[in-house]
Design a protein that fits this description.
Blueprint (H helix, E strand, L loop, with lengths): L2 H8 L6 H11 L5 H8 L3 H11 L13 H25 L11 H19 L4 H13 L3 H11 L3 H10 L3 H9 L3 H11 L4 H8 L9 H16 L8 H13 L4 H17 L1
Helix pairs in contact: 2-3, 2-5, 3-5, 4-5, 5-7, 6-7, 6-13, 6-15, 7-13, 8-11, 11-12, 12-13, 13-14, 14-15
InterPro entries: HDOD (IPR013976), RNase_Y/CdgJ (IPR052340)
Protein name: HDOD domain-containing protein
Length: 272
């Protein structure tokens, strides 16, 4: 890994007090949706992003969501935390995703799509695992923000973007420029912010799940499959879907469950 990326991680500021409060409420088994809404309401940026997400066709709630309590009630504790945390992280890291050929808004949209696909797929497999994987899927591409920044600083954004546009393996492109993949960078970011070891490790190996420790291998494999179906350069492209389904089958999944989740999302997107 380039020293410039390591230095960027070390110099990251802490997450906001609101995010710390959200994590505290989420970890409290006695707390409920009301307490979570209460800590979110004073933060206008998180409120705006949460309501924007709630009214997105991606989630298909079918009515206008006008306040935090409604949004938290519909999303639930886990999804609310994931959306709030994802938007806070992107704001803190000052997103410029031009080297990947996408806008910051598109990057946020693809992150949400990865999380939604993971949820739709894994709820059919194991609800407890789906909850763990939702947050990881939402945040697993965070490292791309620091990689994009480093590529821009080194004035390599044009050549990087050209390779990204043509590539079926973004991790290989990243490795060739900064000697590290975005999954590894993401893991180091959340390690820096004190997230639990299981969460960090499942993301660390998402670009190379066969190398993952046994206890997180299934999680890393699932994250890898979802990012294969929804790569930031060609989300839901036919080839990407086929690659993802093949990887799911090879990993021993009933790949029809993933196929159904993909079809469900494509129907929602086409209807919007």
């Amino acid at each position: 890994m380039k020293s410039s990326i390591a230095d960027s991680i070390k110099s990251l500021p802490p997450l906001s007090k609101t995010i710390a409060d959200i994590n505290r409420v989420y970890a409290d088994e006695e707390a409920g949706i009301g307490e979570l809404a209460k800590v979110i309401e004073p933060d206008p940026m998180i409120v705006a992003n949460l309501l924007k997400a709630a009214n997105s066709p991606l989630y298909g709630f079918g009515k206008e969501i006008k306040n935090v309590s409604q949004a938290v009630s519909l999303f639930g504790m886990s999804m609310t935390r994931s959306i709030a945390l994802g938007n806070a992280v992107r704001k803190l890291l000052n997103v410029d995703m031009q080297p990947y050929g996408i806008t910051s808004d598109k990057f946020a949209e693809i992150s949400a799509m990865q999380a939604t696909l993971m949820n739709k797929w894994y709820l059919k497999i194991d609800r407890a695992k789906a909850e763990k994987l939702y947050l990881a899927a939402f945040l697993q591409e965070t490292g791309k923000i620091l990689i994009a920044s480093d590529v821009i600083k080194d004035d390599e954004d044009i050549s990087f973007k050209s390779e990204v546009e043509m590539s079926n393996n973004l991790a290989a492109v990243e490795k060739s420029y900064v000697n590290v993949t975005s999954s590894e960078v993401t893991a180091l970011i959340f390690e820096h912010w004190g997230f639990d070891n299981e969460f960090v490790e499942m993301i660390r190996y998402a670009d190379n799940p066969s190398a993952a420790p046994k206890e997180v291998q299934e999680f890393a494999t699932a994250l890898h499959i979802v990012k294969t179906v929804l790569p930031v350069n060609r989300p839901f492209a036919e080839q990407a879907i086929n690659f993802g389904l093949r990887k799911a089958r090879d990993a021993g999944y009933e790949y029809e469950l993933l196929e159904d989740a993909i079809d469900d999302m494509l129907d929602t997107i086409e209807a919007s």
